[in-house]
Amino acid sequence: MEVPVGFLVVSLLLSCFAATSYGVYFSSLKETLEVTASPAKDQVLKAGEDQITVTWRFNQSYSAGTDSDYKTVKVKLCYAPISQKDRSWRKTEDRLKKDKTCPHKIVAHPYTTSNNSFTWTVEKDIPSGVYFVRAYALDAQDEEVAYGQNTDVHKVNNLFKIQAITGRHVSLDIASVCFSAFSIVSLAGFFYMEKRK
After folding, report:
1. Which stretches of 59-143 are assigned E, i.e. beta strand?
2. pLDDT for residue 3 is more than 70
3. Which of 2, 3, 64, 123 is the most exposed place for a label (fewest CB within 10 A)?
4. Is the C-alpha dihedral spanning 130, 131, 132, 138 positive or negative?
5. Centroid of chain to Cα 155
6. pLDDT tens digits for 26-85?
């Protein structure tokens, strides 16, 4: 018995569509976690030096048992919309597997309803930008089931800035000046020695 080619093509397309549509969408998550971060609004933190203290807990306005599937909380540092503008590599997507809003992991902890706090030193490789903190509650399959963030839905309040390491220090500038002066003196000495011969 021969299977029609059209049936095979349609089956293949449907299976591809089903495979690509699978995943968790941010719009499907409830904001059941209350998250706070220590930086004041518009505070500038220096990468590699300053610290952020993040606290999170279950929002008591939800009924008991809402958090029964929560096994882990993953806290992340996220780009604010102003730091995503004209940067497609930081683009926000509703499908969390493709979302690039929160690429910087702060910590992952087993879930408890309250008294959760973590102090994180801003890593040296964090780029300059405007940020906020978001926490995801994960279930036993490591899939996001809820979230919370220290900013509002439009991501305009409680934002803070991080200033990246520039790579230039005073000692580096002094060394470059010394080596430049030495090379000029060496060149002048070389020409003097050649003229003397």
Report:
1. 72-79, 104-110, 116-121, 129-138
2. no
3. 2
4. positive
5. 14
6. 999 999 999 999 998 889 999 999 999 999 999 988 988 888 999 999 999 999 999 999
8 A C-beta contact, residue 52 and residue 39: yes
Residue 96 bridge partners (DSSP): none
CA distance 92 to 158: 19
For residue 151, pLDDT over 80 is answered with: yes
pLDDT at 19: 44
* Calculated CA dihedral for residues 182, 183, 184, 190, nearest 10 degrees: 110
Q: Helix H segments across the chain?
A: 5-21, 81-84, 170-196
- Cα–Cα distance between 174 and 189 in angstroms, integer? 22
pTM for this entry: 0.73
Please give the C-alpha separations between residue 39 and each of 128, 155, 189, in angstroms, as whole numbers.
15, 15, 56
CA dist., res. 129 & res. 121, Å (int):
16
